[in-house]
Amino acid sequence: RLTEKLNSAFKKLRGRGKLSEEQVKDGLKEIRRILLAADVHYSVVKKFVKRVENKAIGEEVLKSLTPGEQIIKIVREELQELLGGQREELGLHQHGPTPIILVGLQGTGKTTTAGKLALHYREQKKTPILYSADYRRPAAREQLRQLAEENQLEFYPEQYEDPRDDLPELVEYAENKSLNPVIIDTAGRLNIDQPMLEEIGDFQRLLPESRVLLVIDGMMGQEALQVAEDFAGVVQLDGLILTKMEGDARGGAAISAREVTGVPVLYIGTGEKAADFQPFHPERMASRILG
Amino acid sequence: VPGLGGDFSIERLEAALLSSDVGLETVEKLIQPLESGQDKGDPGEHLRKQIIEIFHRAGPVTLQISDSSPTVYFFVGVNGSGKTTSMAKLAHNFDKQIIFAAADTFRAAAIEQLKKWGERLDLPVISHQKGGDPTAVVYDALEAAVHRQADFLFVDTAGRLHTRRDLMEQLEKMYRVTVGQKSNEPTESLLVLDASTGQNGLQQVRTFAEKLPVTGIILSKLDSTARGGVALSVVDELGIPVKLVGTGETLDDLAPFSPEIYCDALLG
Ligand SMILES: Nc1nc2c(ncn2[C@@H]2O[C@H](COP(=O)(O)OP(=O)(O)OP(=O)(O)O)[C@@H](O)[C@H]2O)c(=O)[nH]1
Ligand SMILES: Nc1nc2c(ncn2[C@@H]2O[C@H](COP(=O)(O)OP(=O)(O)OP(=O)(O)O)[C@@H](O)[C@H]2O)c(=O)[nH]1
Ligand SMILES: [Mg+2]
Ligand SMILES: [Mg+2]
Q: Is the Cβ of B204 closer than 8 Å to some Cβ of chain A?
């Protein structure tokens, strides 16, 4: 376990007083390995370890902790800080429906998450409506329609071929029926597919009041950094959602994505059912990353 | 330990491997000899040879055909990796009498999705009701394939995390159904692995391989920016060959695996 590994690295250097440079460097080699094993991006790990190093050297070792435990404490605090320190909420507009657009790579869990998000808002006594802008994937709209049906959620069937023609009418419909939020599922797309990235830019321009959430697979590796950066380059992102987190992937992709976009992780998906959805807790994530 | 490169070119090679999601232990194993034996010529060339050798050791990338019809192929893997799409692409490539078994009876519109592909390919899809027993679908589909003298039976299974013991047991049961019909033991159990998978990938494949004999990997979404380093660790540690790569979302986007092309992308 982490503490044991660090402590064994430190046992010949045990002592009170300040953390020596050598103690810190030894500990950081292990921390670097742990963060890479947790899928945190190579460059983010480098910067992070430097930050911890500067904070740790010369720090007073607390009477109750060993040097190894002291370093872990600093790492944990810095990780939490990196993740935004505390929980954040996605605020809805008070007047008029809030469109929430889910975007991301193929297969990350957007459609499933759309259903989860709608259920989450209904449990908060809101009146959500679901719409699928995915005209590409076979049976994508049917998938969202079924999710809406089995959870008794409002669903807006497409009226046009191009979602850009649907969106204004969808929001108008929601306004008339006092529905809020309007949750919009989109087709999976690569961060290097320029026309498809342009499309979500168009969606946001059509609905300037919309929030855009990037859905990331919890087991994603190093590429999370570039992917998050590319999506943030074409739309204003308001939040990140990390899916499939009930598995044993450590979820370092969240660290990379947060670091490069400055956008908070708001929720995590913890299973395939609509109820498998939780708000994101930075301190729990920090513990998970450290294994 | 990563980050201990004495030579800048070796450090650059290590960074290339790490940033491509190659498993940490595999990276160490590959970089170590470069650091100690630096008189062996260009480290990049040496590394490239090592990597290609790892793939050659894992065996042939061809798909096996059973000598008694139907040949059964299973498509397995975690949620969203590209199983259903990969299965459709492979059928498109084969141009044979293929029957599809819609054994994902759990996920919303999984059956409809496969039926759409069946329509496009003009291939029959055997399915039951949503929520039904997937083993029964496999059993039924096998009977149909035998009865219709189909060349192949492709089984689409539900995505499942390897940490779900109950779902892994269910998969094992589905596999044994086909094994039970002696001559119809799955000839290939193809695990579809997303190229952007991180360090968790090895554990994923290892767990699946404990439940059924995974005979090949389909490395999907290689058209993304991901280099699929996860596959290198899987091949090295488990000896399972990568047979195919997914390079997009249409039926033509499937290719045989090439270690050379893979290596070029990996080492940039
Ligand atoms: N285990 C687990 N599976 C999930 C979770 N969220 C989604 N899934 C599954 O992941 C798979 C993909 O989910 P989808 O909702 O179809 O993903 P998507 O992003 O809409 O896919 P595309 O539209 O093709 O890009 C499905 O099998 C879902 O059931 C989660 O939190 N945990
Ligand atoms: N870019 C790209 N997308 C792919 C590739 N293979 C599959 N996809 C996409 O990935 C998404 C998920 O594909 P599916 O075939 O539904 O994946 P699955 O493993 O069957 O998903 P579940 O059954 O829900 O676990 C779809 O949007 C596919 O179009 C590929 O090689 N490249
Ligand atoms: Mg979808
Ligand atoms: Mg599927």
A: yes
B24 interface with A at CB cutoff 8 Å = yes
Q: Is A51 buried (19+), middle (13-18) or exposed (0-12) by CB count in 10 A?
A: middle
Is the CB of residue B247 below 6 angstroms from any atom belonging to ligand 2?
A: yes
Nearest ligand atom owner, CA of B77? 2
Show the tokens assigned to A86. 């505390």
N-term to C-term CA, chain B:
22
Check residue A156 and report its DSSP letter.
Answer: -
Give the gyration radius of chain B's Cα atoms. Answer: 20
Q: Which of residues 228-247 of B touch A (CB under 8 A)?
A: 229-230
> 3-class SS at B64?
coil
Of residues A40 and B186, more confidence is placed in: A40
The whole-number mean pLDDT for each consecutive block of 10 residues of chain B, a chain of 268 residues, reads 61 96 97 80 92 94 91 97 98 95 98 98 98 96 95 97 98 85 78 98 98 97 98 98 98 98 94
**Cα torsion B200, B192, B60, B257: sign:** negative
Task: Enumerate residues 6+ apart whose C-beta is below 8 A from A15.
Answer: A61, A67
**A123 to A149, A200, A246, A270, B25: CA distances (angstroms):** 16, 28, 22, 17, 45
Exposure string (b/e) for B216-236, b if CB count within 10 Å is 16 or more? bbbbbbbbbbbbbbbbbbbbb
B254 by DSSP, 3-state: which? Answer: strand
**Separation of CA A113 and ligand 1 centre (Å):** 8
Q: Is B2 on the interface with A (CB under 8 A)?
A: yes
| Mode of pairing for the β-strands spanning B216-220 and B188-194 | parallel
